[in-house]
Amino acid sequence: MAIEDDVLVIGGGLAGATAALAAADAAPDVRVRLVTYKQSTLRHASGLIDILGYAPGSPEEGPLVDPFDALSDLPEGHPYERVGSEAVREALAFFDDVAGNAYAGDHTDANALVPTHGGTVKPTARYPVSTADGLASDDRDALLVGFETLPDFEAPLAAAHLEAAGAPFSARGATIPFPGIVRDDAKVTRYAHLLDQDETVTTGAREALATTVAERLADESRVGFPAVLGDEHAAEVRADLADALGADVFEVPMGPPSLPGMRLEDLLYDALEDAGVRVTSGVPVIDYETATEADAVAADGGSGADRIDRVVVDRNGTEIPHRADQYVLATGGLVGKGVRSERERVFEPIFDCHVPHAADRYDWFVDNVFGDQPYARFGLASDRDLRPLDAGDEPEFANLRAAGAVLGGYDFAAEKSGAGVSLATGYVAGTRAGEEVGE
Amino acid sequence: MSDAEQPTDDHVPGAEEEEFEPIQVFPEAEEMDLRPGADNCYKCSTCDTNCPVAEVDDEFPGPKFQGPEQWRLKRQDDHDVDDSVMKCSNCMRCDSACPSEVPLSQMHNTARGEYVEEQMEKFSREYLRNRILANYRRLAPLAAAFPRTANFVMGLSVTKWMGEKLLGITSEREFPEFATETFREWWTKRGGAKVENPDKRIAYFHGCYSNYNTPEVAKALVRVYEHFGYEIMVPDQSCSGTPMFANGMLEDARRAAETNVRELAAALEDGADIVASCSSCSMSLRQEYPELFDFENTETVAENTWDAVEYLRVHEDLESELEGRSVEGDEFDDFAYHAPCHSRNQGLDGQTIEVLSMIDGIEAHDVGDSCSGISGTYGWKEENYETSMKIGEEMFEHMDAADAQTGLTECPTCSMQMEHGTGYEIKHTLEVLEAALVGSGSAAGGRREAG
Fold first, then answer.
1. Are residues A316 and B9, on separate chains, in Cβ contact within 8 Å?
2. Which SS3 state, helix, strand or coil, does residue A378 take?
């Protein structure tokens, strides 16, 4: 016996969750399961949904105004080139449906410019509503507020950076004590929880914060805070602060750990639950077995590629077999550890799919830290159906597709395409997997 | 060769294992070397965002400090373990949070053990209280011998007042009732196993709570497994050790583990697999034993231990067996289900909802992924009571909002917290399975002394 499903998605980040949702959406009655080991890198993520911020290889040209215009010029092997620009649009529309009113930006193809905690400006296609009043294209003056106990956001510095970058408004920064927190190392979740529950500090936490900020507010009509304004009740927290201040309130996306990323994770997992996707978390997939030749021929007319029959999930030392008809690999890249390296090789740990890379590890990097790093593009090569390819350019398995950062051929950090590639490839891999089961 | 020339990337799945000679950090060789765990931490703070204690109490520096940072500090030799380690509730959520394979809960257990060993005054009220709480298994037989008296005395407000004043055990909580007949007494009276089957055997690790307090859960397991034709063994056993790890009483835990590993390994020899009905017991046998102890067969026992429901899903077609069945009576209707942290850490948090969805007329609503806040003995301590209830607040809210009047969970102390915060009656998943598969005729309501 094994735990049986039709589609099994391995990996619980943006790509995996999108793949599972798309598979459930593609064919009714398809049983979809998502297995995820560690918490996804969504907790590191800004929560912004980028399609393409900079043209690959030419960042000096500055941020792209319309990411879709640039999609057709991408090099062969880039995940967007594999799935085609129509699929990118479909995936984004799919995300808009899932996100509902939690995200903004779908009124235009053009990139929005969102200020970050460093005072830089990030080109992005969709952004959490909590950041909507902070856009750099908006010419209203802004007060940025930082907290003494939260060193990740130095408000005066961020404000100066924004002005130096040519933002069309005047930005001022102020640093205040956060009412109710005295420790230097309180966690971001502590700030969020205080505001979420409106815990009593002197008065309620929200009122106390607004009162402290009001003393610093001049005639700015919007106020930016580090992105710690609540978790489960974030909209309510923002509305209360805005009412008390008489100004619009927005969040500035922060580095890890990131509440907007965590909220996006919650949004996706709620959607998975609503879609009837079964989720198994906290356990790794460690191995797989292929089907016998006869089964494989019966299943796909003998394409020549092996078929994965089952994978093995390690549950605290006990091996639990999971069987499905179609598999999606969305285990992440070098950070998410879907792609791993030793001194002599770079490899994909579950199915040992081929990862193209130079034999000599001194060719994996260049000396200029911010240069064009080869390792940033490490990952699986795939066909247009997103099936990983072996060294001979043949599909590794007939029923395995890959999505998200486990794919190679793009440098998401340089081109600002991480979320978009995860969405587009997750959407395509999940849809095809669901359709193939439904056939 | 120095570590800089030969960096270690610990237990990379799929990597070719090379021999790594750990640097001698501790004077005694039998102490654990946690250096690789500290080296694997890249400070992303994901663990901190998952810590239920840090979210409600800024006095707690969080798992990243308790584990990796504390080990780095201690290498300088002039730092003791920080006393904040006792504020950790041992929910172990940081383990599955870490994207970098840092064995956080193992580090916490070790640090706590060292703190209790070296810094806690052995005649202090706190030490005595923790020892009593951690060793509930030793006191329970006394209470079980005179259950009615014990329940009466434990329920008296004067007892609770004394408990708080003398020992620092919170007076806010109701002590769990002792059953008038323990599971083992019932098992002996019944004449042991009703089914003999050399091909399908399980050894039941019932733990303390379902033996002394909720034998109906243990009986449900027996009837469900016999329904599937299993021969059940009930080996001699001690406490799983969970409350002892959490209180840094590693010597007590070691003694208990030694008994359990010996007895359970013998059952494995007889062709049985081990199943547990309590999520913290299965967690302990599977994860903490191999992390902390090295008795002969520790690994073998860990690898062959299963959660009771999970075992049936993998070895039997539990879901088909349940399909189309319904449960008589109104005792089992819809449930507000809370997945214990220790189920979550075993990847079992979705299991109950999936399995119960097969039964007609029963709907289990997941009340979200928050921690219940009691964490075994943690929420029983006077100084933690408020934190415990703050952590539980989200779960209480979600239980109230759920379309159900009965709670459901697999963890004994979670069930105490759920009842305490909402007033709901709380059931165990196995009781629902028993009612569906065997019929509620034998589903003893409450503490019936039925055979």
1. no
2. coil
Residue B240, pLDDT score: 97
Taking residues B81-92, report their average pLDDT: 92
E strand residue ranges, A141-189? 142-147, 171-176
Strands A346-347, A340-341: pairing kind: antiparallel
Contact A257 B96 (CB under 8 A): no
Write the pLDDT tens digit of every residue in A12-52: 999 999 999 999 999 889 999 999 998 888 988 999 999 99
Range of weakest confidence among A204-218, A283-297, B339-353 = A283-297
CB A230 within 8 Å of CB A203: no
Does the pLDDT of residue B32 top 60, yes or no?
no
- The pair phi, psi for residue B43, each rounded to 5°, is 70, 30
- Segment among A270-279, B218-227, B432-441 with least mean pLDDT: B432-441
Q: How far is CA B349 from CA A65, B102, B209, in A?
A: 44, 22, 21
Closest in B290, B302, B347 to A282, CB measured: B347
**B15 contacts on A by Cβ (under 8 Å):** 340, 342, 347, 349
Q: Mean pLDDT across chain B, nearest whole number? A: 88
Per-residue buried b or exposed e for B17-37, using 16+ beta carbons within 10 Å of the residue's own CB: eeeeeeeeeeeeeeebebbbb
Instruction: Give the end-to-end CA distance of chain B in Å, rounded to a whole number.
Output: 66
Residues 6+ apart with CB under 8 A from B21: none
Asked if pLDDT for residue B78 goes beyond 50, the answer is: yes
Q: Which of A224-238, A261-275, B70-84 has the lowest mean pLDDT?
A: B70-84
Question: Are B410 and B341 in contact, with CB atoms under 8 Å apart?
Answer: no
The confidence score (pLDDT) of residue B2 equals 37
Rg (CA), chain A: 23
Please tell me which residue of chain A has the smallest CA distance to B393.
A197
Q: Is B262 within 8 Å of B289 (Cβ atoms)?
A: no
Tokens representing A36 are: 């995820």
d(CA A194, CA A204): 9
What DSSP element (H or E) covers B234? Answer: none
Q: Is the pLDDT of residue A281 over 70?
A: yes
**CB-based contacts of B234, cutoff 8 Å, min separation 6:** B184, B187, B192, B203, B204, B206
The residue to which tokens 């099936």 are assigned:
A387
pLDDT of amino acid B374: 95
For residues A120 and A100, is the Cβ–Cβ distance under 8 A?
Answer: no
Give the strand order in the sheet containing A326-329: A278-281, A32-36, A7-10, A326-329, A400-402
CB contact under 8 A, B96 and A38: yes
Q: Distance (Å, rounded) from C-alpha A314 to C-alpha B96?
A: 13
pLDDT at B6: 42
Residue B13, pLDDT score: 54
**What is the percent of chain B where pLDDT is above 70?**
90
H or E segment and range at residue B280: helix B279-283
Give pTM, 2 decimals.
0.90
Contacts of A41 in chain B (CB under 8 A): 99
H-type alpha helices, B328-384:
341-344, 351-356
Separation of alpha carbons A268 and B93, rounded Å? 20
CB A310 within 8 A of CB A288: yes
Give yes or no for a contact between B203 and B237, defined as CB atoms under 8 angstroms apart: no
